[in-house]
Write a structure and sequence with these properties.
174 residues; mainly alpha
């Protein structure tokens, strides 16, 4: 290049003029290349990573599932997006099924709890009825024995009063 224009390396002014002549266009070309490279990296690397990040965050939440758009991506990234979309859909179905099973289990538990409460109430009512029957049968048994004794034997007048007092006592306790 230097030789074509007739310049020698010793001529620094010519070199400096030549560099200033080509340096500005070279800087512009470098800046445009860098911007293009950044845009390319954004579209081919950062945008897919952002989409993957958004999809994985939707997996963590219960609200909704995010589907990554597959079109406009290169082959291996399209395959990765399809796999993530499938995983997202399967996770949503699994979450739905688990929630339904939890609801069913909770309903069964509530039903069984109500049955247990009814059973406990019936058991308490039975114990109460048995206690009441016992309280009635004890005095009745004593009165029955006293009355039979009065009927069977010729007892002394003092004993008759004692047996009659037992019968009256039993009747008043009921």
């Amino acid at each position: 290049l230097f030789l074509e224009e007739g310049l020698h390396i010793d001529n620094w002014k010519a070199v400096r003029d030549l560099l200033s002549k080509y340096l500005v266009p070279l800087c512009i070309i470098a800046a445009v290349t860098a911007a293009t490279l950044c845009l390319f990296i954004s579209l081919t690397l950062l945008l897919p990573l952002w989409r993957i990040n958004r999809a994985t965050r939707s997996l963590q939440s219960d609200s909704s599932t995010y589907t990554i758009p597959v079109s406009g991506s290169s082959g291996c990234i399209q395959e990765l997006f399809r796999d993530i979309n499938t995983l997202t859909q399967e996770t949503a179905l699994f979450r739905k099924r688990i929630n339904e099973e939890i609801e069913t289990a909770l309903s069964d538990m509530e039903r069984k709890q109500k049955q247990l409460i009814v059973k406990q109430r019936l058991e308490a009512t039975g114990k109460l009825a048995a206690g009441i029957a016992h309280e009635i049968n004890n005095p009745l048994g004593g009165m029955l024995n006293a009355a039979r004794t009065l009927l069977r034997h010729d007892t002394k007048a003092g004993k008759n009063k004692e047996y009659l007092a037992l019968i009256v006592d039993g009747l008043t306790r009921m």
